[in-house]
Design brief:
heterodimer, A: alpha/beta, Rossmann fold, four-stranded antiparallel β-sheet, 7 helices, globular, B: alpha+beta, Alpha-Beta Plaits, 2 domains, elongated
């Protein structure tokens, strides 16, 4: 599903955020991306989102070489990726329902089909009863779950999360991780960037450990 | 309005997409929703929007009113037949006999089609009836009006008429010979000059409208930066992101155009009274022509286009620059 082939990313100014990254993540696999802050976790996710381009090497997602993606294809590529942010990035000028419906609206879903999917996604994260509220009125754990509902509402093949539990207490964090595990079990590929080692080491999943832009060999984390 | 890149580009991954037959309907529904939403956003801030609309309206109404008034002036010119008449104002001391002789001499000329004598008594009578100065004239001891011979030249070409004019003016009994077309030519020249000025003014102010709307839309883009970033990250195309702002520009233009039409109508209504009093004095049935329905629609369309275009420039410059980082 995700394949990094000798990928390096050098920012203008010479800072090398990632060097010679090689890994492959299969369909339905769940993996944690971890490492100290500044190790390159965000950069790696940005490469997958096509927010940044690799300086050298190939990033291939679902058979698509991202270096060869044309500008006008990028939106359609992104519609297949659910993205969960640390600060959830909800829009406070509209209801929970409208926040979750946004990706479907953009993709041009028929309203009844969209409504069905939005309700299913909200039900999945346990917030169906809050669909008409403004997200600003929700707790941070609930806001994060709305963000997850928005990320999964159009059934993406790939779910990326950037520090999804960064602002949450351990109990809420465990709940969020459980949600990700559920998506993985139905075939969604999930990649979670997190430095919450105490939490992710308890969950028995594959770990990709970055250290100063390099991927540590398995077993050395 | 927005580019249809949704249609051209295939989905990159093999993900199911909305069915094609409903895609057009959905796109239409999206446009409708965006259009209404953009309008509502403007109406939710009535004062700010009204100010922008007023600026646009004034910028549009100013040159349009000028052009409209000039068209009315040209209408005066075209109402007169194009044959130039020559009015010969006779020397006041001239006798009735000399007048008759002069009239006869002129009438037999081959380059004169017709000649008509208006005696000073006739002129006074006519003036009393039509000018409204009747009572004032009765207070005078003597008739101040000279006798006039109206000459219609046989030729219509300018040099021939001017030659005739010069010849008749040389007659010692003629105090002053006036070529009636001269004032019309002068008027036409002035109107033409003013039209050119008005067109230039319209172009400059039209560019001003584009800039004003472009800048207003730039602020709207800045205010919705967070939303734009999220939309781009969840797969919104450039067309989708641009759409609300293009509609915002369109509504600014149309609203400004509507206000401009209103403003022009008010100006025309205000001028109607003085103008009819003025033309009443000149014994004319001229009346002011307003904008009319089809021209009003044209103003709305042009204003809408200017708004859309201003927004488009702004979107091109500023929206592309907002990329998720």
């Amino acid at each position: 599903m995700i394949k990094f082939d000798d990928v390096s990313k050098r920012y203008p100014g010479g800072h090398e955020a990632l060097s010679h990254i090689d890994f492959h993540l299969g369909r339905g696999e769940l993996a944690f991306l971890t490492g100290h802050s500044g190790a390159g976790k965000s950069t790696l996710l940005k490469l997958i989102m096509h927010m940044e381009l690799a300086s050298s090497g190939q990033v291939i997602v679902n058979g698509q070489n991202l270096n060869k993606l044309k500008r006008r294809q990028v939106p359609f590529y992104r519609r297949n990726i659910g993205l969960v942010f640390q600060d959830h990035q909800l829009l406070f000028d509209r209801t929970v329902y409208d926040n979750v419906a946004l990706p479907l609206l953009i993709a041009g879903y028929e309203p009844r089909e969209a409504a069905r999917r939005v309700r299913a996604a909200l039900d999945k994260v346990g917030l169906l009863h809050k669909e008409n509220q403004n997200p600003i009125a929700l707790s941070s754990g609930e806001q994060q779950r709305v963000g997850i509902a928005r990320a999964v509402v159009n059934k993406p093949l790939l779910l990326l999360a950037d520090e999804p539990t960064g602002n949450l207490d351990p109990e809420l964090s465990a709940e969020i991780m459980e949600l990700f595990e559920q998506f993985s079990s139905v075939g969604v590929t999930v990649l979670i960037a997190s430095h919450d080692l105490s939490l992710i080491s308890r969950l028995e999943h594959r770990m990709l450990v970055l250290d100063h832009g390099r991927l540590l060999p398995v077993g050395q984390e | 309005m927005a580019r249809m890149s949704e249609k051209k580009t295939k989905p990159v991954l093999g993900q199911s997409r909305p069915k094609a037959n409903s895609a057009w309907q959905n796109l239409f529904a999206q446009h409708q929703e965006t259009a209404v939403d953009s309008l509502l956003r403007l109406l939710l801030e009535p004062l700010a929007s009204l100010l922008t609309w007023a600026v646009i309206a004034i910028a549009l109404a100013l040159p349009l009113t000028l052009i409209l008034l000039l068209q009315n002036l040209q209408q005066i010119g075209s109402g007169l037949d194009q044959v130039s008449n020559i009015s010969l104002f006779m020397v006041p001391e001239v006798t009735a006999q000399t007048l008759d002789e002069t009239l006869r001499d002129i009438s037999v000329r081959t380059d004169v089609a017709a000649a008509e004598l208006i005696t000073s008594e006739q002129a006074l009578q006519e003036f009393e009836q039509n000018s409204g100065f009747g009572e004032a004239l009765q207070g005078l001891d003597t008739n101040p009006l000279p006798a006039v011979i109206l000459v219609t030249p046989a030729a219509t070409s300018q040099p021939a008429v001017e030659a005739l004019h010069a010849e008749l003016a040389a007659n010692p009994n003629v105090e002053y010979a006036q070529l009636d077309l001269a004032w019309l030519q002068r008027l036409n020249a002035i109107v033409e000059f003013a039209s050119r000025m008005a067109t230039l003014l319209a172009l400059m102010l039209g560019a001003g409208v584009i800039l004003v709307i472009g800048n207003t839309v730039r602020l709207a883009i800045e205010n919705r930066r967070a939303e734009i970033v999220v939309i781009k990250l969840v797969g919104g195309t450039d067309a989708y992101v641009s759409r609300p702002f293009l509609y915002t520009g369109l509504w600014y233009g149309v609203g400004g155009g509507l206000l401009a039409v209103l403003l022009i109508s008010l100006v025309m209504f205000g001028l109607q009274g003085p103008v009819s009093r003025l033309v009443g004095v000149y014994d004319s049935n001229f009346s002011l022509i307003g904008l009319g329905i089809s021209n009003s629609c044209l103003v709305l369309m042009v204003a809408g286009f200017l708004g859309w275009f201003g927004a488009w420039i702004s979107v091109l410059r500023h929206l592309r620059a907002i990329e998720p980082r």
